[in-house]
Structure formats: structure tokens, C-alpha cells
Amino acid sequence: MSSVKELVESNSLKSVPSNYVCIKNPEDSIFYETENIPTINFSQLTSSNPNERSKAIQQLGEACRDWGFFLLINHSVSETLMEKVLRACQSFFDLTEKEKREYLGRELFDPIRYGTSFNVTVDKTLLWRDYLKCHVHPHFNAPSKPPGFSETLEEYITKDRELVEELLKGISLSLGLEENYIHKKMNADLGSQLLVINCYPPCPKPELVMGLPAHTDHGLLTLLMQNELEGLQIQHSGKWIPVHPLPNSFLVNTGDHLEILTNGKYKSLVHRAVANTKGTRISVGTAHGPPLDHVVEPLPELVRDDNPPSYQAIKYRDYMKLQQNHELNGKSCLDRIRI
Ligand SMILES: O=C(O)CCC(=O)C(=O)O
Ligand SMILES: [Fe+2]
Description:
By secondary structure, the chain is of the alpha+beta class. The protein has a single domain (4-335), classed as B-lactam Antibiotic, Isopenicillin N Synthase, Chain (Jelly Rolls, Sandwich), CATH 2.60.120.330. The protein has helices spanning 4-10, 42-45, 50-66, 79-93, 97-101, 149-174, 181-185, 256-261, 316-324, 332-335, and strands at residues 39-41, 69-73, 112-116, 130-137, 192-200, 212-215, 221-226, 232-236, 239-242, 250-254, 271-273, 281-289, 295-296, 314-315. The strands form 3 sheets. Strands 1-2-10-7-12-5-4-3 form an 8-stranded mixed beta sheet. β8 (232-236) and β9 (239-242) form a beta hairpin. Bound molecules: 2-oxoglutaric acid and fe (ii) ion. 2-oxoglutaric acid binds next to β5, β11 and β12.
């Protein structure tokens, strides 16, 4: 199976091969612009001024409840590091196909997995996307090529964990829980962190293909950053909204495990990535979840007689398998464990 990058570079592509052409509902092609996407100011969230902090916590709670998405600004990861990571990811995809294929993964839990589409054994239509996935916590794994790649990623994922730890504190407080509640309950010190680097090469007819179809992420939270090309669209009140990232911001979305944990109070975000004609889009996501063998169920504090558990308890590893073994399709994975 060739990568999309290889396909695009091997012949000056004028049309899209038929196995990449996806059937879209007419309403899927309509999207709506809005300036109301929530923004969370990280420095306020971690402020020593209690009023400032509680305001930010309230905004965070509202963003999780009403959107499942926000742009994180004024955070502690330097612009220099973010740019370095994006350059390093681009140079990984610029390795020869032979070099990248050393990392061809077959199994979901292979520590490092290079591939194309989502799961080529179940995808009916191929996606306009190549990827590299690395399990980076509790054990760090990354390709040894290109030089410096692994070191850059390791520096980045450590910073990224620090951000998530603070976000989870804010989320716990927004739910009326003690600030380290989710961290402890999810055993986050040994939590799983999966790095997903997406590469969407330019496409002559983006309207015919999909980078990533509508889906939700499996973890608690996903932090995403990207190069200068846009492509993420989020679903809000049944409408597709394109995201225009602010400079130096993170795109943060809630995942299925936050929905399970909060018994549906903070719903996971349905989102997708579209292709473009202009150039190669790179996005770098990190999915943060509990340890793979941790069983997650709705928090007892958020379950009441008149609000019984809406999701079955499931081991994180089994949930990831459930998602991987079916085509990506909106909330279909979460629906499988809905009570
Ligand atoms: O590339 C993007 O903007 C989204 C990527 C994504 O949704 C994912 O990797 O799960
Ligand atoms: Fe996603």
C-alpha cells in the first residue's frame, strides 16, 4: 500500500484515484464560520490570583460542556519548541519510503506505527492522510531517524503532559471535585499518551476526499497543534465549523473517556480533517488517557438515582481496540458502550 505522499509525488496527480473518492452527504459539505469558538487563557487558569483562576475554571467548564473544544493561549510551551516539533515531523515524512517503512506497524499497540489512511483492513475508502503514531508514555518510543527527531519529541511530550495536568485540575474543579481528583482517579502518573502525527499532502480535488472523517478521540483530552495550513472542522449544534487557530495556540478537544467519566456532562467532540490544494498540512496530536489496563466508568460523584450511569465500564485498551476495528464514524464507538 503506498502512502498518499508517495502517490502525490510519483506522478503529477491531476485527479484522485477512485479508491480515495468518498461519498459525502450534501449537508456534510456545508460549513459555518463563527468567531465564538472558546479561548482559554492558560496563564489565568494557573494564576495565583484566586478570582482570575476561578473565572478561567468557569470558562473551561463551559467550553467543555457547550463545545468540547477550545483554543488554548498563553500557555507554557515556547513557540520555538512548537516550530521545532513541526519541522522535525515534516522531516520524518521527508525520509524515503524505505526508511519510513522500517516503522510500518501492524498492531494497534505497536510502540511505533507508520501508516496511511486509518485502518486499511477496515477502511472502505482510503483517507488522504499518512501518519506516524508513537506511544510516548509511560514508556517513550520514537523513531531514531531523522537525527534529533526523537529528542525533540521527548522534550515536547513532557511539556504537553504538564499542560494536560493543569487542564485536568481545572476540569476537576469545574465539576465541583477536588483539583487532583481526575488525575488520581485516572492514575495519570502512569497514564497513556499517544502521539499522532498526521500528514495531509496537497490534493488536486479536496472536495472528493477526506483527510480524517467525522470521529471522536478515545482519550480524556487531545492537544493538537498544526503548521500554517488549516483543515480541522468541529461539529457544534449539528453544524460543521472550520477552526482558524490563533498563532501559537493549541487546539484542545474532549475525548470519549471524559464523556464516560463525567457521565455525559462533558461530551466528546465530533471533528474531522479536510484536505487542501495548497500544500502539505501537518498536525501533531497527543491523546491523553488513563493507563491502558485501567477500567473507566462514570464517576460515582456524577451519578445519581435520577442520572444513572449512561456508559458501561470498559478497559481503556479494549475501548481503543473497539475503535480501531471499525471504520471511523462520528460517535459510533461510544454508542457501542452506551447503556
Ligand atoms: O489533523 C487534524 O486537524 C485532526 C487530527 C485528528 O483528529 C486526530 O488525529 O485524531
Ligand atoms: Fe481526532
